[in-house]
Amino acid sequence: MKKNLLYKILIVLICLVLLPLQVAMATVLGNLRSGVNADRTRLVLNFDKMPKYSETVADKQLIITFDGKVKRSEKLQLKDNLVKSVILERFNNQSRLVVTFYKSVPKYSIFSLKSPNRFVLDLKKINYDKQVTKIADGLTYTYLREYVDSLPEEVYILEISPNSGYTLKPLLGQENYIQKGVLSQMASNAGAIAAINASYFDSDVWVVGNLMIDKKWVSAEDTPRTALIIDNNDRAQIITNTSYSGKVIRSDGISAPITGLNRMRLANDLIYYNDAYGSSTDTNIYGIEARIVNNRVTEISKTGNLALRPNTVVLSGNGTSAMFLQGLKLGAKVKIQQSFGRTEADYAKHVLGVGPLLVDNGVQSVQTASEEIADDISVGRSPRTAIGIRADGTIVILVVDGRSSSSSGMSLDELARYMIRLKVDRAMNFDGGGSSEMVVNGDVVNAPSDGDERPIRVGLGIFGR
């Protein structure tokens, strides 16, 4: 009995001796501090031995959980446009470092230093850079690398001075056709000094938006949207509420609505085709087509796929629209009426409808709802392309990269605020994402998010005097 009692007492004494040793062996962290400079924010912790840790990214927070203890909770409030707050705290039987950012979590690295032992967290920044290049009198190119709302952005800007003699003109993917092409080749073919991507487009041969080039009707959109127009004096203007409507009137006075321009013919469609679409209508046999020359019917076909020729129009109907075209006769007179719903657009030299409107009278006015812009365009940050006009007539063209560690892209609201910062009176959005691109003097100056030039259907070129 005495031996057993002595044995138990000995075990208790050994445990009492070892317990503080075990506590002493646990990692102890403390003395949280920071350093902020142009290219990084650094957070440092002292420790007696390197702890095991795990990392978690949650929304705007980076949480590092340590297998160790802190002497006391510590908090830092930095004068930094990247980090909002830093907290070192006890967490269950461990400890954790919680770093909260104003926006998203940036690139970071973790390492240790000795003498004394330190745990280091480096949060990466980009270096501010601005390069301004005078391309020619009245035409300036600017590259900017900066933080916007605590996020890295790479921005490319073209500015055209008023009365400088430069003109804007839409470019088609394959010179005279809306087939796809890459912007650098489109600009080269047309002889443009610079160019950007412009219209939305479908995977089929389909430009989404109103488009007129040199008074030729190229594509149509009946949803009221914003458009860039170039008048007959080569003056640029951004207008709202352009909405296509068209109809064909037979010689007997019966009419039918035009449902689309230069796009795939669907059920009951009446499509207006011209040579901007390609070499033929590419339609099937389930319809009727009529060639119109100088407002008269010169050919009627029930086999589809009529050839498209300069200075002629082909009306292609399916279903109810085919029944309407059956009433046409060779040599009969046909009247075609078309409008973009705005007199300025109907009489313009060029019309380029995209949208939404971003800025109106120098005030943010993003019209995604009224212009029925899809969520994949209107929601979130992406590479963006935009154009704005200042009160004095200066044209401001912008591309911002996105989907990369060096450039976050912008939401439409952020894009609108940036255009206001550039002092535009009115601005509108163009197609973005992997299509966003700027070409200057034959070179692609931005970094398209696909990694290479995306083939597009419509661009906007800048031409010399």
UniProtKB/TrEMBL annotation:
Pfam families: NAGPA (PF09992). InterPro entries: NAGPA. Residues 292-463 form the Phosphodiester glycosidase domain. PANTHER family: N-ACETYLGLUCOSAMINE-1-PHOSPHODIESTER ALPHA-N-ACETYLGLUCOSAMINIDASE (PTHR40446:SF2). This is Phosphodiester glycosidase domain-containing protein. It comes from bioreactor metagenome. The lineage of its organism: unclassified sequences, metagenomes, ecological metagenomes.
